[in-house]
Amino acid sequence: MTQKVRHKGYFAQVRIYLGKFIRMFAYQNDWKVLPIGAAIAALVTVVVGANMFVTQEGTFNGAFALTCVCIWNGFFNSIQVVCRERSIVKREHRAGLSISAYLTAHMIYQLLLCIAQTAVTMLICFIAGIKFPAQGIITPFGMLDIALTFLLTTYAADMFALMISCIVRNTTAAMTAMPFLLIFQLIFSGALFDLKGFTKSITALSISRWGMESVCAIGRYNDQPMVTLWNTMYQIRDIDYMGTQPVLEAMRQIQREGKMNDFLAWSGQHNQNMAYASDPKQLLIKWGALVLLLAAAVIVATIALKFIDRDKR
Question: pTM of this prediction?
Fold first, then answer.
């Protein structure tokens, strides 16, 4: 009489694999992602920290740079985690492994890792002297809103990389895909290029766009002064026009009247971006977009890994 083999249930498998990933973190040097992420965040904050949440330019540059840090962290967390043990997953799947339980364990573990990385990034920002907005948009505290944005951005990037790791066959292919993933995030963030038409619509699929817009909104970008116009005027102040120096005279007049801060605020008012509006509903939409992107990545990852038994290589 053939005895029916009983496999571990869904929750038991989740617990087993979560324990495995935690042991790998401790004993196989997976913990190194934390100091590496801290070093990258430190380099960024040294450059952009002084003016972030102070001027529009500082907030824009800081939001873009720190969003890139979050995406970098997320990608490197999971780009190799599945493909490096693909043969093991294939063998265990045939022995009764639930793909959903396996990926759920990955999701929980990666979420814990992203929380730790967010905490480290926030600590580095605090040490660097970044002045976070006191008032939040969704929560009572601006620092908490920023932390939640960093977490969602990092986790969305993490799940996207996990999806790639489930699709490709080996770590070489995964690391080959990595530069293209990063370049996509840079190009379609909406920060470096003026995208229009179809290319602008692609930004809806970009994690960097939603992360950066969220940080700028929480940082009250539209309420801050802009210094670019004044700096440009300073560079051309000596230009002579019909025997006069109109730019230099205008600058001196502004300074004599003590109106420089008013001029910078006026410049900011004419450089507002509605995508950075500090509106709770708009911020929730941006956070929702990040959640939808990570959910879509998990669905594709699950479908891809369900067919692992058909992998002949």
Answer: 0.91
